Amino acid sequence: MRKYCDYISVDCVIFGFEIDRLNVLLVDRTLRGEGESDIEFADHTLTGNHIYETETVGDAANRVLYDLTGLTGIYLEQFKTFAHPDRLKKENDRKWLLHDGRDPDKRIVSIGYFALLATQDVTIEWKGRNVKWVPYHEIGELAFDHNEILENALIALRNKAKHEPIGFELLPEKFTLSQLQKVYEIILDTEFDKRNFRKKVARMKYLIPLDEKQTGVAHKPARLYMFSREVYEKTKKDLFDFWV
Amino acid sequence: MRKYCDYISVDCVIFGFEIDRLNVLLVDRTLRGEGESDIEFADHTLTGNHIYETETVGDAANRVLYDLTGLTGIYLEQFKTFAHPDRLKKENDRKWLLHDGRDPDKRIVSIGYFALLATQDVTIEWKGRNVKWVPYHEIGELAFDHNEILENALIALRNKAKHEPIGFELLPEKFTLSQLQKVYEIILDTEFDKRNFRKKVARMKYLIPLDEKQTGVAHKPARLYMFSREVYEKTKKDLFDFWV
DNA sequence: GCAAAAGTGTTCGGAGTACACCCATGT
DNA sequence: ACATGGGTGTACTCCGAACACTTTTGC
Q1: CATH class of B7-163
Q2: Nearest to A243 among B7, B8, B163 (CB)
Q3: B79-110, pLDDT tens digit by residue?
Q4: A4-163 placed in CATH 1.20.120.680
Q5: Residue ranges of the alpha helices (H) in chain A?
Q6: Which of A65, A163, B91, B130 minimizes the number of CB atoms within 10 Å of its CB?
Q7: Is residue B237's beta carbon less than 7 angstroms from any atom in nucleic acid strand D?
């Protein structure tokens, strides 16, 4: 049995994209009282876990992701660390930790990661708790400091998306240009002109057009594209677009 | 007496700029043996410290900076966290920690910050150890995982400098355009054409030309400029230069 | 045939790039 | 007078922004 390091944890903000929404994977947190149907409170947390004593934090984040989705090789990036002395001290948080046999006064560092994947079926139970996709804009008050972590994750995602081609990570392997445009519109909270957007992406050699089209749609079927990381790594120019 | 939290620390990569060099502030680490003149090893560390039990990590980083420089309001940014299980396990590191009365087997999370300031006089002693500026390219093997932290700090600085106006933070309040150009050339490891560079910065409203010139230089004295953060915040357009 | 999204071209202004010479000062 | 870095303009190309209509499919 591997031992946990009880003062280091990772929290993963798992983003998923679907049609025209950005989703986040949340876990139910329900604290029951004495009676079976006696619920003291119910809310949600981000996904996360303590790290094992001999494990790196990156491995811990990948482990959390794998346990939830069964997927490996997911886009995952460390974006910020949270260690405020009061981050676990709200009343419900203390109760939850106590109930869970943990020390609510222990100061825990949490290293924040965000992950990107296409919204799809994931394990719906995780350590006996329910897991579900929730649209970003419908997320209410979360446990601990998870609202703060979530906000920072979105900011990090935005900044990254502005300068590096990671929108693809939120789409299935094959996608249409309209889906790609939508991803960027949602992430960056803006709108693009369709013709200008297509002119722009047409210059990107690492966006490979396929000889394949959508099927089963009630309109002209769109061409499918793939992202090629190899071509990207080879052709990317280190642009000094440089501060402006 | 405030108590330290013995498993959370901050490491600060303090960058300074001078003429045409990027410097980093390092602290001597000399472990003496039994005899007075018996030196077991001598190398360098980044600046850093454990955090106090009730302190935020940002406050701890600012405290380290203040202790070293006497300055407040310095540009400071959290860039990455280091928590590899073996990060303190090199032989010399173990000896040093033992000598210092600390437990070399305790896993310590270190939250990395980088700071930017104009190279200038700083406290030359800190907790009984010597402190000095060292040009980035002359830095050899450092203690612990500090080479890794340093590398990551430079990468973070570069990425930030490409998209946000932080080059100013490495210069005195009033500076010339040639100094500014040099800062960016050093950070980004490239060269710019003087005329094009000036055309570019001329568009930036937050770069304020002063009615003041250099004095005491053996050539045509250059005009001085200031950076206005207020103007920047007001006029910056959130550019979606967007991945390319 | 109609609803729905796919796909396509032109014009204009602004920014990046390449490139060479005169100017003001201290010594 | 000379060495040193300061300061300036033009031509060309490419990119971003604005803007409207035809095409292909499922129903």
Answers
A1: alpha beta
A2: B163
A3: 999 999 999 999 999 999 999 999 999 999 99
A4: no
A5: 57-69, 91-99, 146-163, 177-188, 194-202, 229-235
A6: B91
A7: no
